[in-house]
Structures are given as C-alpha cells and as structure tokens.
Amino acid sequence: MSATAPPPLPGAGLPDDYRGSEILGAVIATTSVALITVLARLWVRLTMVHKMGSDVSLTYLPSFDFIVERINQDWAMIIAMTLSLAGLGVVIPQVYYGAGRHIVYLAPDVATMGLKINFVSQAVYLWAIPAVKMSIGLFLLRIAPNKIYRRMLQGVMVFTMVYTMFCFLTLLLQCTNLAILWDPTVQATCWSKGTLQMLSHVNSIINIVTDMFFAVLPAPMLWNVQINMRTKASLICIMGLGVFAVAAALIKSLFLSNYGKTGDFLWDSTDLTIWISAECNTGIIAACLPCLKPLFKRILDSTTQRYGKSSFGSSANQTNQSYKMKSYSSKGKGGGSRHFQAQNQPKIGRGSRAMSKGNSNEDELALTKPASPNAITKVTTVTIDTSHPIDSSWWSPTSPRMRV
C-alpha cells in the first residue's frame, strides 16, 4: 500500500518568472508623485494660506462636529498619505520575500514570510483608499452650495467608513485561525473561495461607485455657483482627475477573478498590488491639486513678470508714474518725430520753476534743430538726489551743487 503523494506546490510546471521589479517600479513611482503633491499642499497651507485648522462644519450632522474639528481635509490627507507610505513600506519587503514569483520556486520560510506580509498590505490599503475619499469629501463640503449636496456628501462619507469597517472585520474573521493564510500546516477552517471572491467583487464595485461619485459630483454642484468661469472649469477638471482612480479600480477588479484559484497568492497578487497602489495614489494626487492653486498662480505670475509683455508694460508705467515732465516732440528732415517724456516730477521750489522757464526755449531749440550728418550726439544724464528735503533757497540753474 503506497502513501498518497502530496499535492504539487502552486506554480508547479510554470516558468520561474519574476515580476517583483514591476511591483516596485509602479508602487514607488505612484507613491513618490503622491508624496510630492501632499508636501506641496502642506507647504501652501502653512506658508501661503496660513491655515491648517478646521475649515469645515457638518452643520446638518451636529454629532460629527467634534470629529471634523479635529480631522479636517488636511489631516485626513496626511492620514491617507501616511497609510500609502506604510503600504510602500510593506510592499518592499513583500517583494523581497517572493511577491511576483511562483511559490514553488521559493523556500518554505521565505514563502511563509511573503504571504504574511501580503496579508498586512491588504489591511493597509483597505484603510488608505477610504481615507483619501474622506479628504475629498471634506474638501467638497467647503464648496457645497446647498443642503442637498451636503446631505449627499455626508451620507456617502459615513457609508464609506462603515463599509470599510465591515470589510476589515471580514478580513480578520475569514478564518478561525489567520495563520493558515501563510502556514498551510495550521489546522483551521475558512470561508469558501466563492464567498471571499464575492466579497472582493462587492468591495471593488463599491469603490468604483464612490470614486465616480467624488469625481463627477463637482460638475453639477459647481455649475450654478457664481464664481469665475475659468476657475469653475479648472476646478471641475482637476476634481475630475478622480476618474483615473476609477479606471485603476476597474482594472484591479479584472484581476480578482483569478486571484487565489491555484493558491499561488504571491504571484496572483502582482497586478492587484500595482493597481491598488495606483488607485490610492491617483486619488491622493487628484485631491491635492485643487489646493495647489495659490502655488500655480504664484509660479504663473512670476513667469509672466519675467518673460511676459505685461511685465514690460508695468515697468514702463511705473517709470512714467515716477517721473513726469513736459512732453516735447519735433519732426526732423526725415519726417520722424522724437519725444521726451517723464512724469510726476516733484515740485521742488522757485528755482525749478525758474529753470523750467529759462531753459524751455533752449530745450525746444535743441530738440527741433536738425543735426548735421557728421554731427556727434552727446547724451547727458542728470541725477537729482531727493532722498533729503531740498532747500529751494540754494537751487538755481547755475548752482555748482547740481550734479551732472
């Protein structure tokens, strides 16, 4: 009587492919961009807006005022970014311990540790995504034009958090002993694969619907608000970037059907990890961009002042406003005209009036007298120091103190 042969390990007969670099590249890239946008948001809030406190009040749900006063949109975003960074911190060792490879090619202790870290990553991203939605919802509450939109936002936010808690409990209670998820030698009973996949699909559908809600709601909500049309359009488009989070959630749902069918969880979770991170970090970026408007405005204004036409015009206007004198014009032989103009000359005293009268004819003659072809033109710059009060008694056209 021969002993029954043990079942083959997951991935047996398949090539030893490695997709860990794909996981790291996607997660590190999306998390890094999200981190940059969050840091820029906090910099704007602290240095330009000078406000990190509560700016939202759930007027129609007074019982939540205490919570909102302490967890406003900025703090909710900080929590979401912290969870996203924690997800990155979990994914890196997960790849080190075999994520992106078939279990059959891993040592038993390595595969056990990789499966344990994979379970932790599910819990981290499970809370990171609703934290992003809470930050977006708190932002939209600030600009909600009426009670109906506020009720809708509050209802979706409360539902999101309650459902996330339900999903977290199902994650913890799916087996009588969770150790069986990473150690097959443990004796325990778990829910059927069909039940687990059904819960995963329901969770994915709810994520897609709520992502779409927060991405599309700004359009009808701001349509009749009396604000600048360009500001309204830009805000709607920026908030509409949440559609990319919807796309990531849709792609993620496509990989749920095959997840865990063969027990090769470290290999099957490759695409799920990539797109869960993309969904979370894309939502963070879309939620932070509207808060960066003061920074974009400063950059555009600075660029315009350096390279735009308005900067030269404004400089000229400032110059003309600082020095305003009589305007002279004359036409030479060629029919061209020459102008000399300065504005807002301060009234210095009698001496200046005498100089104006005494030299006006000479100035006009100098400007109207045509120059000979071989003439040499001399330009003289006159600098007048007005930093101290001027005593008009010593001023005269022939005064030796006048610096030329």
From TrEMBL:
Keyword Transmembrane among record annotations: yes
Main localization (coarse): membrane
PANTHER family the UniProt entry points to: INTEGRAL MEMBRANE PROTEIN, PTH11-LIKE INTEGRAL MEMBRANE PROTEIN (AFU_ORTHOLOGUE AFUA_5G11245)
Top-level taxon in the UniProt lineage: Eukaryota
Domain Rhodopsin: start-end pairs: 73-298
Localization annotation: Membrane
Family from the record: Belongs to the SAT4 family.
Biased composition regions of type Polar residues, renumbered to the chain: 307-321
Composition-biased stretches (Low complexity): 322-331
Annotated spans, Disordered: 307-372
Keyword Aminoacyl-tRNA synthetase: no
Protein name, entry field: Integral membrane family protein
Alphabetical UniProt keywords: Membrane, Transmembrane, Transmembrane helix
Bilayer-spanning residue ranges: 23-44, 75-96, 124-144, 156-182, 202-223, 235-255, 275-296
Membrane topology, as annotated: Multi-pass membrane protein
